[in-house]
């Protein structure tokens, strides 16, 4: 569920991008709305609001959420400052590859792979399964970054749609696959765990 929260600003970004360009009057000022640059502004504002609400309600943000927010502010800000969508096209690849780096680094830094630190409180799995799961997340993030980069600079007419729907579809498919994989091993764990007597 937490991964899906990241898609709220992306969906608002898509709506703003798909809106026919028009002039909007707000507080006595005229603003252009519709297209990539107003959509970028919507992405920045909605990200600040969404993660701000999460920060207030949870009194913290996870490291991945901080990374996503900072990347949005940096790449979105550069897009608006230099009036070039190229910066925004690099946001998804860079964020995905930084996530991959974090998961990969956890094999060498700390006592547990990152996925076990995130999910270990809810699941009991053998260490080899945790390692495979962690590697799967590394491969997933590398693939997502590469796919976003390829589409952004090869199929420019579709990159915004792919940024939203393609990323969402890849994430959902991966989570379903992870769930199926885990369900097989959870049954194995249940059979091998001794039951206590009443």
Can you describe what's shown?
This protein has 198 residues and is mostly helical. It is built from nine helices and two strands. The chain has a two-stranded antiparallel ribbon with strand order 1-2. Helix 6 (91-105) runs antiparallel to helix 8 and helix 8 (127-154) packs antiparallel against helix 9. The chain is elongated, with a radius of gyration of 20 Å.
Summarize it.
With 198 residues, the chain is mostly helical. It is built from nine helices and two strands.
Strand content of the residues, in percent? 5-15%
Approximate helicity band: over 70%
- Kindly provide the radius of gyration, computed on alpha-carbon positions and rounded to a whole number of angstroms: 20 Å
User: Secondary-structure element sequence?
Assistant: HHEEHHHHHHH
Structural class based on helices, strands and sheet pairing: mainly alpha
Low-confidence stretches: 189-198
Report on the biggest sheet: 2 strands, antiparallel
> Mean of the pLDDT scores?
86
> Main sheet: which strands, in order across?
1-2
- Principal-axis shape: elongated
The tally of strands reads 2
Number of helices: 9
Distance between the termini: 37 Å
């Amino acid at each position: 569920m937490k991964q899906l929260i990241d898609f709220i600003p992306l969906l608002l970004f898509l709506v703003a991008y798909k809106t026919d360009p028009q002039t909007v009057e707000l507080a006595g000022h005229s603003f252009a709305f519709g297209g990539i640059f107003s959509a970028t502004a919507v992405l920045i504002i909605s990200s600040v609001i969404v993660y701000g609400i999460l920060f207030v309600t949870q009194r913290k943000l996870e490291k991945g959420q901080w990374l996503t927010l900072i990347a949005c502010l940096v790449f979105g800000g550069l897009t608006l400052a230099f009036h070039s969508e190229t910066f925004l096209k690099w946001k998804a690849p860079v964020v995905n590859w930084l996530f991959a780096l974090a998961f990969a680094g956890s094999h060498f830094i700390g006592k547990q792979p990152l996925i076990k630190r995130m999910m270990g409180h809810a699941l009991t799995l053998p260490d080899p399964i945790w390692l495979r799961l962690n590697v799967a997340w590394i491969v997933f993030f590398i693939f997502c970054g590469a796919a976003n980069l390829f589409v952004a600079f090869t199929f420019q007419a579709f990159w915004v749609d792919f940024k939203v729907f393609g990323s969402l579809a890849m994430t959902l498919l991966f989570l379903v696959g992870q769930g199926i994989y885990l369900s097989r091993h959870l049954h194995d764990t249940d059979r091998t765990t001794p039951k206590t007597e009443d």
